[in-house]
């Protein structure tokens, strides 16, 4: 067991834990950290891009649970060297996300620190939350978009080279409109943040299922983290409906496995960037 | 204007900002950071004490708004060097607070970092929230407890010396039971985190009032931060009721000013510890 899992187990056996967010009384509460030298290096992206991505990775949790962000709290630790323009750039990234996804920044905390460390709590609303624990035997297992580029781009950055501005590693491309429409046909869902293989392991554990792979998933696809695509399961009956909705929203759907009795364990470690 | 104020102004003109937490639909949402070398140094306190205090400073916001903590989200950045015992010590501090104040830790994030940085969001419930903007002319202005020791103890720590285990700087003493009973007689309230003078400035601004001091507040009392006492205002009529409740709970009440027309500006800077 890694330290993260150990700590989470220690700290809480809450029934609300285990999904991308905690669903309580119509709301989904999700919180994610986005820290310098842990999730990004400052010369990789502009301050606006950093702030914007820190929001997107949080919003991704809400979307994967079929919840719409309503409010955000932001705790930002800011280096003393930042000037007013830097602060403006940062806040413009936060505000961009709030505007785009139509929610309000209602509070938080600002402190001085040796590096830029952001933690965000998103409060989202949903009438029909989606969880990780409700995939059913014979469900098709699917993900949106294309996986693999984030790992490649991360490696490029770690090698001191530049990546394209359009890179999903720089700016995750969330599939909000598609998923809010498709969710009613979905049994279980979560976002792909740790990499498909590791996230499948979580889905397997939560839903108590194994997988029979229809398509071969290459290693560079399965261990690419921070993709923020949606991993979901649905019945054979609903698959066509979801495919139609995906087509309408120009979202690629990959049907790559079926849920079977059993369990699934990834043989790969967490591939988040660590300093 | 300091950078914190500038950034907060940039990021949000939400009507929910400006109190210890954001009151929305029966809930209060508050978020505070508790970072190594910003709020504490690791040789000052045990990991359990650090985790416990990080919770208390957040719960303090809820209490000051007359809200009862129900759920917490915790984002913890943990040094790689921490072993299982360290993680257990940390989580025991978080759990101690959750047990004592009867709320549930429902989620968050755990990452690896070069130092221990904690951000916490507390979700609290209240039927009668208290704000900073409702102090009225002629109100008495009061605070609970004794102010000054936290600044002294912080200085002692910064000088490399030890402080008592019973120090309020180590373990804030929240006046929850008193305030939940007294709140209905209170007009405006907030916790004292930046120091009485600076927090009075915030109260003045929010309620659009000035202060006529009944008692002289010494500098070492007025600029002592992280006290986590409650600053509140009440009518002359309600003062006696509040004093009776305070007596019952063995809480000291200091009546030190009256609200008058005008405004109040502290001549002191923020005295939070900065590295």
From TrEMBL, chains A, B:
Binding site for Mg(2+) 4: 20, 30, 61
Pathway involvement of the protein, from the record: Cofactor biosynthesis; thiamine diphosphate biosynthesis; thiamine diphosphate from thiamine phosphate: step 1/1
Residues the record lists as binding Mg(2+) 1: 32, 109
Keyword Nucleotide-binding assigned: yes
Entry keywords, A to Z: ATP-binding, Kinase, Magnesium, Metal-binding, Nucleotide-binding, Thiamine biosynthesis, Transferase
GO biological process: thiamine biosynthetic process; thiamine diphosphate biosynthetic process
Cited InterPro entries: PurM-like_C_sf (IPR036676), PurM-like_N (IPR016188), PurM-like_N_sf (IPR036921), ThiL-like (IPR006283)
Amino acids binding Mg(2+) 3: 20, 61, 191
Function: Catalyzes the ATP-dependent phosphorylation of thiamine-monophosphate (TMP) to form thiamine-pyrophosphate (TPP), the active form of vitamin B1.
HAMAP family per the UniProt record, alphabetical: TMP_kinase
Miscellaneous notes: Reaction mechanism of ThiL seems to utilize a direct, inline transfer of the gamma-phosphate of ATP to TMP rather than a phosphorylated enzyme intermediate.
Protein name: Thiamine-monophosphate kinase
